[in-house]
Amino acid sequence: MKILYLETSSKNCSVAVSDNERLLCLCEEVSENYKQSESLHTYVEWALEGAGISLKEIEAVSLGKGPGSYTGLRIGASSAKGFCYGLKVPLIAVNSLESMIEPFLGQNYDLIVPLVDARRMEVYTATYDGQTGKEISETEAKILDETSFEELKDKKVVFLGDGARKAKEILNLPDADFKEDVYPSAQYLIKRTLEKIENKEVEDMAYFEPFYLKDFHGVKKKS
Q1: Closest-CA residue to 92 (of 160, 22, 18)
Q2: What is the pTM (predicted TM-score) of this model?
Q3: pLDDT tens, 187-199?
Q4: Nearest residue to 136 via CA among 175, 166, 98, 162
Q5: How far is CA 165 from CA 91, 161, 219, in A?
Q6: Residue 7 is part of which domain span?
């Protein structure tokens, strides 16, 4: 089964193509300027070309549904829906935090905690078992302070993501590892997507919305 994957929830604009579990091509770039609107469809073209297949051969589209950048999620969701409607294929949606943890599973961590920057001292986070990847605490928007995650102080923990920088400065967890340059990536949506397809967990495109987690607050321009 040939699947197209889109992950646009962060500074990493990421597109992958797989044939079942085999990754055929990955195109991605981390940009401080959030280049999804200008890069996403170019990356889709490059990924398909690199995989050696045409768009009409795609049998499902998988989307990193968030949480993350509101604008990035809107762009990814509208593109994914467009491909699904045009190709008449199902849409699969995976929590973007899950795509951050896969490279760290089985690395002798008790717990893996993604931290996606949500501005000021807030992060999007969840806690996963370091061996199985099983979700231990569900995704939430959390305001960081000195007492955050203190219940994990006796565990071997790694904090991942662009929110890890501010967490490292404030958390009183000297034994924890912090890896700041980790972003959601389309290549790590594959395993979870195939599980969802097998379990027939597909989205109703008429009602699908990205996992924003909190309301969008725009900035008013000064007159």
Answers
A1: 18
A2: 0.93
A3: 999 999 999 999 9
A4: 98
A5: 34, 8, 25
A6: 2-96+184-199
Residues 7 and 90 in one domain: yes
The burial of 122, by beta-carbon neighbours within 10 Å (0-12 exposed, 13-18 middle, 19 or more buried), is given as: middle
Closest CA to 96 of 122, 131, 69, 129: 69
Residue 11, token pair as written in the block: 């500074």
Task: Report pLDDT digits (tens) over 138-180.
Answer: 999 999 999 999 999 999 999 999 999 999 999 999 999 999 9
Are 94 and 133 in contact by the 8 Å Cβ rule? The answer is no
Q: What order do you get walking across the sheet with 60-64 strand by strand?
A: 22-30, 12-19, 2-7, 60-64, 91-94
Q: Given a cut of 80, is residue 220 above it in pLDDT?
A: no
In a domain, 90, yes or no: yes
- The reported pLDDT for the residue numbered 215 is 58
Question: What domain count does the chain have?
Answer: 2
